[in-house]
Amino acid sequence: MTSQISSAPPRAPRPLRVLAAMSGGVDSAVAAARAAEAGHDVTGVHLALSANPQSFRTGARGCCTIEDSRDARRAADVIGIPFYVWDLAERFREDVVEDFVAEYEAGRTPNPCLRCNEKIKFAALLDKALALGFDAVCTGHYAQVILNEDGTRELHRASDMAKDQSYVLGVLDDRQLAHAMFPLGDTVTTKDEIRAEAERRGLAVAKKPDSHDICFIADGDTQGFLASRLGKAEGDIVDESGAVLGTHEGAFGFTIGQRKGLRIGTPAPDGKPRYVLDISPVNNTVTVGPAAALDVTALTAVKPRWCGAAPSGAGTYTAQLRAHGDETPVTAELTSDGELRVSFTEPVRGVAPGQAIVLYDGTRVVGSATIATTHRAAAAV
Question: 299 partner at 20 to 30 Å CA-CA among 84, 89, 172, 327?
Answer without folding.
Answer: 172
